[in-house]
Design brief:
alpha/beta, globular, binds 2'-monophosphoadenosine-5'-diphosphate
Amino acid sequence: MRFSSRQEDRLIDALTALYCIIGNPVSHSLSPAMHNAAFRALGINAVYLAFKVDEEKLQEAVEGFKAIGVRGFNVTIPFKRSVVDFLDELDEKAAKIGAVNTVKAEGGKLFGFNTDGMGFIRSLEEEGICYRGKNVLIIGAGGASRAICAYLSEHCNVTVVNRTAKKAESLAADFGLNWASLDDIPSILASFKEGDLIVNTTSVGLKDEDLELFDYERLLKPSFVVVDIIYGKDTKLLKSARKIGCKAVDGEGMLLYQGVEAFKIWTGKNPPIDVMRKALKSSS
Ligand code: ATR
């Protein structure tokens, strides 16, 4: 093995451990930059790559990872729920959420975890946002929403709204929350008080840039906290919230801290958070 004393000169060799992310699309992912920076900083002989996987090839990809001894991987859109079928065990939280974003290989088995909710909470805490006891409106009922709801349901009065109302109803039933349709947002926000939170977990803002989930100008009040978990982009929701005077937070902190938790699961080590943050900032 050829290791130089200078970390940046370290070479990939036959002992290099492989970690990766699978998704489709995945080329926008900042996880490789973040995790490779952390591996380098800690002198860990590992590399993290991104693989775009066709939807019908998910099982083959996961079995291939197992066969070649990939140490761990992240899972992103659209596989967070479907990957569960190909794993050996889930931790308690991932089982409750029904979705996995982090997989660890150990003893020939694949173990699934979900660090998205923890990442979300840590990003709120870092921003000094108090969420305990607050009213929270969660927009969207997909995998990301489920992960966030699993954590917030323990501390807040959460209402989930979704374009497909049935999905909001079923998510709310799983976590003991309130649910409503997108049309109910005006009446929900009318009862909101200072410091209450609005969280967008939908892809509106990423894909449908001009679409509004509700009338932002009319319904947002300066005392609200607005979180959009999309990262690397100033969405219309965040721009409007800032203009009105709300505290507005994007998804970069959530991305960072879900990665921090994944790194700990894989390596058992505390990663250098500032190095990971710097890698995110310089690649976005
Ligand atoms: P993720 O795993 O990232 O949460 P997802 O499971 O595909 O992704 O969920 C996407 C969410 O964005 C869903 O809540 C979806 O609403 P539907 O359940 O009705 O599909 C929501 N979404 C996507 N496009 C939307 C749009 N144009 N308007 C409102 N909600 C939208």
